[in-house]
Amino acid sequence: MPGSLPATAETSWPKDVGIVALEIYFPSQYVDQVELEKFDGASAGKYTIGLGQSKMGFCSDREDINSLCLTVVQHLMERNNLTYDCIGRLEVGTETIIDKSKSVKTVLMQLFEDSGNTDVEGIDTTNACYGGTAALFNAVNWVESSSWDGRYALVVAGDIAVYATGSARPTGGAGAIAMLVGPNATLVFERGLRGTHMQHAYDFYKPDMVSEYPVVDGKLSIQCYLSALDRCYSTYRKKICAQWQNEGMDKHFTLNDFGYMIFHSPYCKLVQKSLARLLLNDFISDSNPNTESGIYTGLDSFRDVKLEDTYFDRDVEKAFLKASAEIFDEKTKASLLVSRENGNMYTPSVYGCLASVLAQYSPQELAGQRIGVFSYGSGFAATLYSIKVSQDAMPGSSLDKLTSGLSDLKARLDSRKNVSPGVFADNMKLREETHHLANYIPQGSADDLFPGTWYLVRVDEKHRRYYARTSLMSDGPLQAALESVHSSTANEVLWVMCYTNPIT
Q1: Which SUPFAM superfamilies match (predicted)?
Q2: For burial by CB atoms within 10 Å, which of 153, 387, 432, 436 has the most?
């Protein structure tokens, strides 16, 4: 069974550690980017063509980071018929902070109460959009360490991305991803193949503790992202070439060695430019590129450019976007389904791209492929790493089950409610005015939430948050049924998120 403890666990290195199962959640409502362009008075195509965005999911005041993570964790556990006592580590990556002390992970532990399992390591990790990847690395490292006790690790990445009125607002979004980590996995982390770059910059940050909105230096943020991509790719290539040499292979690594390449996606257009930039890296590092035919045709005039001089060079960008168009279509375009239709989810963004790939390709197309993953978080931290997909694509295999579990992704996106830009703006205003209020009852309706969604019922005078869950339809995709809950009275509330007498 994927993730099960090997018989010789005491003496063996766990084999094929990686992602065993994956679940995604996004809000049940969205605003159309074409309509938002008109509402904002922006030029036609600014959001849709310029940013590459189609729709943007958003939350009312009924959903917060706790409810997003509660929902996606319970969905993953139910869909995979898992019991909570099989989890030994729970890691959360988020930058949506609603408490400066209490972690989201401790909130999620209430899902474990009936199982009696309190022996669960891990807490929250925060660094802009990189927190989910750091949490995932922590989980993988735990399974591969002497601390591992044979149980699964569970990783949750979730965020609500909202911006003040202005040019950044259409790059928002919301959602959460849950990933089950263990040995004998379907998506295996390639050991020793991580290229990381970390540096100090104020490109995007959230210094105002009473506001959800970040401070953004757009131009600097793009430069930081692209420079980190360059550095991470260079480091990754050196490491994999060193591995190949140890195995007796003398060859250079290029984009062609990735079956698929996915990126953290603030907006889809940046991802397309990033794929083109990796081709630029390949071109510059090639000692003798063929510019007469093939992919580098006509690029000889860029032979001597320096990467650090090209972040905003339109000629370089245009040339390599054109040269990489076919590679983009083959290796990256499909990964942008969730990003294009739901927007930037921050920490889950790159894993939404992973879910998009798994949802749109067959097990046979995915089997044995190497997937490159570039994760970036402002401030800034970035890693490029790779995962190998299981070779077994037979019906009933772990890969078949993983892709089948995500096969309804497009239908779920299409089933959301289209909300007018005016209503969207009203929701943003409401969140702005009520963020961190005590003794507050949310005004949004829970009626339109997806089945099985956790939502905020009230915040009491001590800022303690109470949640309930919408009912599960008996013929829905989830495998377990719970009784319907309502928020009309305090007696019907299922969760209270803090102890009455907390210990600090």
Answers
A1: Thiolase-like
A2: 153
